[in-house]
Design a protein that fits this description.
Largest sheet: 13 strands, parallel
Shape: elongated
Strand content: 15-25%
Number of helices: 10
Structural class: alpha/beta
Helix content: 10-25%
Number of strands: 21
Distance between the termini: 71 Å
Strand order of the largest sheet: 1-2-3-5-7-10-13-16-17-18-19-20-21
Length: 426
């Protein structure tokens, strides 16, 4: 039977349609594609064709994860990763991710080589390093500091760090440090280059307050930690700071003293502060250079108020958000910040859980002995509250008496939006 022109056309286009378009890409682009895969999947591509046989060896990322993988047990996972690191080229790494969410009921074996892998990545000039070991027990890292000219971002979750591990003076390129669900036993977090620090749901358990020394810091988020509040050293480059203190913070007085100086030896919070903080300002000096501050705390914690004796000025502060703690003890928190923020432009009060009987001791207590004028730049005051009660009326009176016109004060009652603060909504 004679071949038709249509059949001929089909036969001519078939070979073109079966071409390996992905395989025709340059090696560098293929390695970039492979770098987005879990390392086990990247290795598996070696069976696709001869050209793919060794591509995985020079992929510029390591992604080690137990999620969705079937290694059988922690020993098999370790065996695979150790062989991977032994056989791959010493190609510089852009990124290394180590996620161990399933220890196969054998945490010791699951943790056995993780720090070795971490330090291997550092030796390969990794720029981004993430370690997340979501287990019932935390991974304990040695107290030997990291040394890297290339490391720019470090994220640790569910690890325990102590000694000098958090001394990043030998990591001059480090810009971002994120610690989540970590136990921090170090005396100091030190980084001359760090610009962003996030500490979430951590436990501070060193002997004395952990000192945070990061003079180049631009953004600070210190959120829902346990133990005693870390001491913030001066951060003149700070632009934005978000601090939230919850019930697990140990800076409270058993005798309901709002300033941490009840004088009782049986009060752990005040005794600790008296011993460790007699010559130090814990928070306010470190935050004094910021332009935007959100300070959320329970009313019974004295950590904010105990620094008032240092009379720290917030000469660059433009936007300020305070929670219920600022109205306790005769509105001391509110009055202090308004007095010490000369260029403040916007003030937001998130008031939901205060106890009205704790705010005012006597009718005229909100009248300070010496009058002060609030910032001439203050144009917006927003009060978010459950209802307009006597406490809200006193706040309005305090601000009005000292130069804030009523038209600048916006009261939002029936407010129930405190689950997420503005920092978290970005």
């Amino acid at each position: 039977m004679a071949e038709t022109s249509e059949d001929a056309g089909i036969k001519k286009t078939s070979p073109a349609g079966s071409q390996d378009h992905i395989g025709a890409l340059p090696d560098a682009l293929l390695q970039q594609i492979l770098s987005s895969l879990p390392s086990r999947d990247a290795v598996r591509t070696c069976v696709l064709a001869t050209r793919w046989r060794t591509l995985w060896k020079s992929v510029p990322s390591l992604r080690i994860s137990t999620a969705g993988e079937r290694y059988g047990n922690a020993h098999e996972l370790n065996k695979f990763v150790n062989h991977l690191l032994l056989l791959r080229d010493r190609t510089p790494l852009l990124e290394c991710e180590i996620n161990s969410h399933d220890s196969y009921n054998d945490a010791d074996e699951a943790f056995r080589y993780i720090e070795l892998w971490l330090r291997y990545a550092v030796s390969c000039q990794a720029r981004v390093l993430r370690v997340d070991v979501s287990q019932d027990t935390r991974l304990c890292l040695s107290d030997v500091p990291l040394l890297s000219e290339c490391l720019m971002r470090l994220e640790l979750s569910f690890v325990e760090v102590e000694g000098h591990f958090l001394d990043f003076s030998s990591c001059p390129a480090l810009k971002v440090l994120k610690l989540k669900h970590c136990a921090i036993k170090a005396e100091r977090i030190l980084s001359p280059s760090l610009s962003k620090l996030i500490i979430y749901d951590a436990i501070f358990c060193s002997n004395g307050r952990t000192r945070i020394s990061a003079p180049s810091l631009v953004t600070l988020q210190l959120d829902e930690f346990a133990g005693y509040t870390p001491l913030l050293e001066p951060m003149q480059a700070l632009v934005r700071a978000f601090l939230r203190f919850e019930e697990n913070c140990d800076d409270y007085c058993a005798n309901d003293n709002y300033f941490g100086d009840c004088g009782s030896e049986s009060c752990d919070g005040c005794s600790y502060s008296k011993f460790y903080d007699k010559d130090d300002c814990v928070l306010l000096k470190g935050l004094s250079g910021t332009m935007n501050l959100e300070l959320i705390s329970q009313s019974d914690l004295f950590i904010g108020r105990m620094d008032f004796k240092w009379r720290v000025m917030f000469i660059q502060l433009k936007t300020l958000l305070l929670s219920d703690w600022c109205v306790a003890a005769d509105f001391s928190g509110l009055i202090y910040f308004v007095q010490h923020s000369p260029i403040l432009e916007r003030l937001t009060l998130q008031l939901e859980c205060y106890e009205e009987e704790c705010t005012i001791k006597k009718e005229d207590s909100y009248n300070p002995r010496s009058r002060f004028l609030v910032s001439q730049h203050l144009k917006v005051v927003e009060i978010n509250c459950r209802q307009e009660d006597e406490t809200i009326h006193h706040i309005v009176k305090i601000l009005g008496t000292h130069g804030v016109p009523p038209e600048c004060i916006n009261i939002k009652s029936n407010f129930r939006g405190l689950e997420r603060f503005s920092f978290e909504q970005k």
